[in-house]
Amino acid sequence: MSEQAGPRIGIVGAGAIGGFYGLLLARAGFDVHFLLRSDYPVVREQGWHLESCSLGTLCQPVKVYEDAAAMPRCDWLLLACKTTSNAELAPLLAQVAADNARVVLLQNGLGVEEAVRPLLPDSLHLLGGLCFICVHRAAPGKLVHQAQGSISLGYHSGPGEQGAAVLAEGVALLRAAGIDARGVADLQQARWQKLVWNVPFNGLSVVLNAHTGMLLGNPTTRELVQTLMEEVIAAAVSAGCTLPAGYAQTLLKVTENMPDYWPSMHHDYRHARPLELAAIYAQPLQRARAMAVEMPATRMLYQQLEFLQEGAVDGQP
Q1: Segment 187-235, tens digit of pLDDT
Q2: What is the pTM of this model?
Q3: Looking at domain 189-309, what is its CATH homologous superfamily?
Q4: DSSP readout, 169-228?
Q5: Quick check: is 194 catalytic?
Q6: Which member of 63, 142, 194, 253 is catalytic?
């Protein structure tokens, strides 16, 4: 594929997730533009540097910007920041969006699209993307990809009756870059399903300072992980979701086969960044309570994370 082929793509909030997928899109020849903050000077001079379990070493110059006003208008916009930055970055999406643009929220948690939709023009299409990947930012401009890399994409809202066509277009776009992408008919179910992994592993990695291998290698913490998973599954089922039989055990086996992994919330905590507590914990707990579903272990974990985020523990980063 030649450079400039296909739609123009903007990556907003490009950390590990945005850097990884944006780099693959750029490598495939798409016209990709990155809006960066702290990584801007390094990526401008050196491009992205990726060490990948499946792709080897990739070093590629890319088009980067510090200011959204300098970016061209994009047909596709991938918002790859944490949900804690959505209110700040949503106006920038509207600023750099082409007419009838597609906005994809590559984020975890519940209520994500519902919170962003009112901040966007009605003329833009909104989709959600769930990323199943082990990747982290080791240093400015340097990404380490340890496992997986797929995306489940779902349509949320937009003008007209174009949802199915826009979703198919998005899946095709990602696949053209070599990304394992699939469309999902029920975005909310996909978000609940991803939470079954995110709730235990993100929170426990912070509270216990433990990676996935440590959490599953100890019988007590393994049992706690499974308890948290079962609570999320119970809430998801009450919300009308249909999850595969034995889903918790399936996720445990998948995680056991992954390299030892520090989830993104652990990195946020160690670097004193805001934690995604609202989308990953508060929203599921609120919805579960409305359905009369109790999640005591999840609530306790959420309370511990709130305590840590408020800086009440000596030695917090």
Answers
A1: 999 999 999 999 999 999 999 999 999 999 999 999 999 999 999 999 9
A2: 0.93
A3: N-(1-d-carboxylethyl)-l-norvaline Dehydrogenase; domain 2 (1.10.1040.10)
A4: HHHHHHHHTT--EEEES-HHHHHHHHHHHHHHHHHHHHHS---HHHHHHSHHHHHHHHHH
A5: yes
A6: 194
